[in-house]
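Annex B, item 7. Sequence and structure tokens for protein A, then protein B.
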Amino acid sequence: MREAAPAQRTDGRGGGIEEDQEGGPVPAGGEQGGGVTGDATSAAGPEAKTAARAGGAPAGGPVRVDASPGVDLLLAIGADHPELLLTGKTLRDQGLMATGLLGAGWPVPLLWEVIARPLPEPLRKTVGAVISGRLKAAALMPVPGSAAGAAVVPHQAPGPDCDVSASCQ
């Protein structure tokens, strides 16, 4: 096992790199855990890192997703648009949000259109994050068709110089 380099040589400026190179490749999964990159992979192995990247989901098994109107809607959208298919914790969480919107009065076809819009190009976030943003934006808007969501325009009376029987344009 190789000893760690002195702390003053890790200032990030690249000094002394040639002197500090490995004599050969470092085997993955060795005693150093992180190998050449020096990342903080624990003794639990790569499975622990994968679970941590997945948002802390337990590595022991799948996340339980109960059926609800929102989950059903998201699964139907995923069936029609495979690139929008959500699973696991993301499906559970976004299904809860979609169920709330449906319960507030959002019509299914309109919510479908909000969720199923094409993904941005280039995709810089996960599909779950994109759908989450769309659902949050919808939640901030008034419910379509409700008294709060209807753009109530007061009745416009014709002006004094307009003959009601003729078009006043």
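Protein B:
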Amino acid sequence: MSATNRAAGKAFRILKVALPVALVGGLGFMTFRPATTTAALQANARAPQFVTQGAIGGKVFTLDLRKQLAKGPVVLYFFPKAFTKGCTLETAAFAENHDRFSAAGATVIGMSADNIADLQRFSTEVCRSKFPVAIATSRIMQAYDVKLPAVNMTNRTSFVIAADGRIAYVHSDMNYVDHVRNTLAAVERLKTRPARR
């Protein structure tokens, strides 16, 4: 094997390891940061229903989206990895604004492919026990079209789902900065929109 081929092979191996790490490491302020992405599910589509394991205040429970929607609109935000910089900052911002979401009648739910033990810790340390975080299984990731390529993680996409089960708003961007502001504005707009069944 020539020196050029060996160097190319080494560069590929480094990239193969470094790219997923870079995607997760800061997840917001990265040298490599994809532009705003487009989720397959758009406004007015029916939100796929699911049941999965979640945690709130460190306690594990069964999260049923249908039951959550029976209480009112849901902000379902997918984030790649608990305790990484961007995901921690985004989730802390959702926690800080929790009362505003509640006042608008919405339930906030975080979703990632993390294991339940990590989500239990995340639900107390970062969510401050204010809202649940739950496991985005491979089936859920596929239904919402939020899986990152080559790694078992979701991208960063936030859905506002109206109580009638239809998606009212979608924001998909690996930069966490606008997710809370945009979803809160969408939830507040829902209050003035007549419900559809």
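Comment on protein B: The chain has a mean pLDDT of 85.
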